[in-house]
Amino acid sequence: GQNIDQPTEMTATEGAIVQINCTYQTSGFNGLFWYQQHAGEAPTFLSYNVLDGLEEKGRFSSFLSRSKGYSYLLLKELQMKDSASYLCAVMDSNYQLIWGAGTKLIIKP
Amino acid sequence: GAVVSQHPSWVICKSGTSVKIECRSLDFQATTMFWYRQFPKQSLMLMATSNEGSKATYEQGVEKDKFLINHASLTLSTLTVTSAHPEDSSFYICSALPIAGASYNEQFFGPGTRLTVL
């Protein structure tokens, strides 16, 4: 079956760095997405990786290793507004998104 | 950027009634729209894939006669929850796949519809 695993919850301090890991097993691979979702709101797009390596976008970076079925989202200079759930999703061979359960990130002052 | 709207943003209804949720792509055309359901503290669950001009494709376990989907144009898809019951209370989110533009198949999400069935 298809499976996306990510930690349920993480806690970090304002101004620090946090890495959220995601491992996946899917039927086919057409890219991996990271989304941010605040409570009661729809997901917003953060990043997309389809080739191995690191993609940097401001304070956020995302890494992919297809051979290991592994990705991480790196958040730097954490701000209180970064408190949210972070969803890892993989697009399978049918171009459908397979979603992880999300990682709730709690930022403490 | 690409914008997707949903209407209504929240709805409360009595058990047994039907509720229609609209999903519109405001500044782009989408041949494919997706309907998701999300229960509290859980991830998004794909309910169905809506294709303009053809029947929707439902995921396993989703009753097509209960969740009616109509994708009548390249900018509008509707989800009708028929004879809603309290267990249908959830956050319903749609997303749209642009025909062209993005170099990858990025879905643009609507803001979601909170359905509460009493």
Provide an overview of this structure.
- The complex is a heterodimer of chains A (109) and B (118).
- With 109 residues, chain A is mostly beta strands.
- Helices cover 0% and strands 57% of the residues of chain A.
- Chain A has strands spanning 3-5, 9-13, 18-25, 32-37, 44-49, 53-57, 60-65, 70-75, 84-91, 97-99, 103-108.
- In chain A, the strands form two sheets. In chain A, strands 2, 4, 5, 9, 10 and 11 form a six-stranded mixed sheet that branches.
- In chain A, a hairpin with a 5-residue loop joins strand 9 and strand 10.
- Chain A is globular, with a radius of gyration of 13 Å.
- The N and C termini of chain A lie far apart (40 Å).
- The model of chain A has no long low-confidence stretch (mean pLDDT 93).
- Chain B is an all-beta fold.
- Chain B is 0% helix and 53% strand.
- In chain B, the strands form two sheets. In chain B, strands 2, 4, 5, 6, 9, 10 and 11 form a seven-stranded mixed sheet that branches.
- Classes of the chains: A mainly beta (109), B mainly beta (118).
- Chain A binds chain B through residues 30-31, 33, 40-45, 48, 50, 87, 91, 95-97, 99-102, and chain B through 34, 42-46, 49, 91, 93, 104-112, 114.
